[in-house]
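Hi there,

I know you've been waiting on this one. I reran it after we fixed the sequence typo, so this is the corrected version. Both the input and the resulting structure follow.
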Amino acid sequence: MDYIYIGLIVVAAGVVIVCGVKIVRRIRYKIYRVKNLLGNLIFKNGMALQNELIEEKPKSVSGMTRLCLPRILKDFPDFDYTYFKQLTENLIKSILNSVNNGNLENLDNAADSLKKQVKLKIKENLNTGKNEKFRNVVIHQTEIMNYTKNNGLYTITFQSAVEYVLSERKVQTKYDVELAFIQDEEKFSAQEAGSVLSTTCPNCGGPVKVKQNNCEYCGSLLTAINIRSWKYVRYKES
């Protein structure tokens, strides 16, 4: 009989051990699941927080003003950096407003080449059904990024750190804007100047050459193009 009792005790102990092992495994599995869930939750929250921080932090611009500005002032002693910096920021806001409203607004200092870019953007939005609305536009910083001289064409590239709200989401981005000046008419032909400034007849839209008094397509009287002036010729989001 003692053997029977001992056997029952051993069997009971085995059952308890097996059940204990199963319970421990289940507890470990649940702990593992909880850790995974918490880990995923922490990861997702961390990524969301990181994205929020990215959205809040303005982009860094390529600030080459200290190097480029002395060279510009050597060529153009009367160049007003503060004025053109503000003009560049106003132009970027005008470009975004033009896209918002589907028409060109306050682009008086822009050459036709830049205006055509804005028109193409507006047309693209219409064709694709996009309803882009740039709201709460803020420009954090504007610097000169580059200054080049090529056959009488002088080009200053400004870069701006821009923030806006698009589709209820804050966006941090950069815009590059090119400001051009034609100084040497002998090195820079009339045809080349016209292609850079991309000037067109206000009556028929035909291309207009530098110093041309009448449109060769419709005969309209034209105001001669002043190539000795600064014009914004291109922009891009970078």
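Quick highlight: Residues 64 and 145 are 5 Å apart (CA to CA).

Best,
R. S.
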